[in-house]
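Protein Record: Sequence and Backbone Structure Tokens
======================================================
Tokens: labelled as protein backbone structure tokens, with as many entries as the chain has residues.
Question of interest: how does this chain fold, as expressed in backbone structure tokens?

___
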Amino acid sequence: MKIGVSTASLYPMHTEDALLEIARLGVKNAEIFLNCNSELSGAVFSDLKSIIKEYDMNIISVHPFSSPMETVHIFSSYDRRVTEMLDLYKRYFSLMNQFGAKIFVIHGAIASAKCSDERYVERFHQLIKAGQEYGITVAQENVSYCRSGKLPFLEMLSHELGDEIKFVLDIKQARRSDLHIHDMIKSLGNKIVHLHLSDADEDRDCLPIGQGVFDFAELFNELKLQGYTGDAVVELYRENYGDYSELADSIITLEKLL
């Protein structure tokens, strides 16, 4: 398992600056969180590619800033918005091929969305197929304020979409949803293809690795038993840590447990 850092951990630092900061820490693996459409091309995109090449980085996954729009675009009943968003995500898939990234992380519809399970499954299948055209795996992340914050919903997707559906396990978001991580692993099994990691204690649900009480050794053992073959990134919010070095230290702590 490769372990890296998400550029989201340095938000609102500009994406290319965040990736450079991570690279200078000696981190070789990363998830890129793109924060606006202008970063899909032009100078910023060129800078990202240059950093990846110069520091010999491995980009595990890409996360779109457009997650809040997925409810009214992809999971909408308005067909033109669906087509428009799929076209946008195909732009992401194309640039991911240039980064070498294989996992595309989406949040999906918010919990209050007026979207039937049938429509959700249909739209997600469209996303899966669009990603496959580019060799990209579209993966549903569990997010506390989204439909995906409930295990029965994730299980429904798993049942309806079979082997094609893949999942991102975000343990911070699981805590916020009161979603038991061990139940999620047991239920979704080897359909989990990517991890977002953070530590926690009784008072704080997002901390650098090693500063909380979460049992990562047990997590890795459970995933191994389910045949997990994916990678992981440390994903914190900027207010959850002090110095950038804590991101690199988190990786070192995790690698000792593998």
In short: Residues 34 and 64 are 5 Å apart (CA to CA). The radius of gyration is 17 Å. Strands lie at 3-6, 29-34, 58-64, 103-106, 137-141, 166-170, 192-197, 231-234. Residues 79-99 form the longest helix (21 residues).
